[in-house]
Amino acid sequence: MEEKRLVKAAKKGDDEALAELFQVTYPFLLKYLLKLTFNLQNAEDLAQETFSKAIENLPKFKGTSKFSTWLIAIATRLYLDQKRKQKREINLLIREQSVRKLKWETQSNNQAWDDVMEALGHLNDDLRVPIILKHYYGFSYEEIAGIIKVPEGTVKSRVHKGIKTIRKELKPIDEGSTNLSKPLSQG
Questions:
Q1: What is the mean pLDDT of the segment spanning 70-90?
Q2: Within a domain: residue 182?
Q3: Sign of dihedral through CA atoms 113, 169, 100, 32?
């Protein structure tokens, strides 16, 4: 596989192979980080920091997973570390502005997608990160547990709780004004 050849060459000090490896994985990594941060500048900074850590730790990369999976694991840990260092959470107004910016950047005309992204943006990181890794990137629960360093059962619980929360938030949108015509209680 091309990726394995590039990793092997990069480990031996081939700067061109390293540059090509990063060039190939950068768009994937940036899209992932945009979904986590909802902020283009922060996503770009984290991508740069991820590559810096990857260069530093390249000799430790065993190749038991794909290189892109390894980068996602590094990026996720960096992101979660960044969040832990902040003294307080971002207030709701800033998050909503970031969601609007992300919508504009992705140029999405699909209202349903916008609603899902906005609902996803309202989740805390403990729920959002596993959902993105599972449902946008297809990682297994076991892989996600390794990436975010929590038990597999905790990952499953967080994914379930996050999806339930998103569905609850989207339910009024789906029902629209039909709620007014339904009886308030069936007994």
A1: 82
A2: no
A3: negative
Determine the residue type at 119: A
| Amino acid 18: pLDDT | 93
Judged against a pLDDT cut of 80, whether residue 99 lies above it is answered with no
Q: In the chain, how many domains are there?
A: 2
In angstroms, rounded to a whole number, what is the distance separating the alpha carbons of residues 77 and 88? Answer: 19
How is residue 104 written in tokens? 């504009």
What are the structure tokens assigned to 55, written together? 């260069």
Q: Mean pLDDT of all residues in the chain?
A: 82
Give me the torsion for CA of 127, 103, 41, 146, rounded to 10°. 30
Helix axis angle, 40-57 to 67-85, nearest 10°: 120
Q: What type of residue is 170?
A: L
Q: For every residue of 99-119, which 3-state class applies, written as one string?
A: HHHHHHHHCCCCHHHHHHHHH
| DSSP structure class, residue 65 | S
pLDDT of residue 177: 38
Structure-token pair, residue 179? 């709620």
Task: Report the distance separating Cα 162 and Cα 95, nearest Å.
Answer: 17
Examine the domain organization and report whether 66 and 135 are in the same domain: no
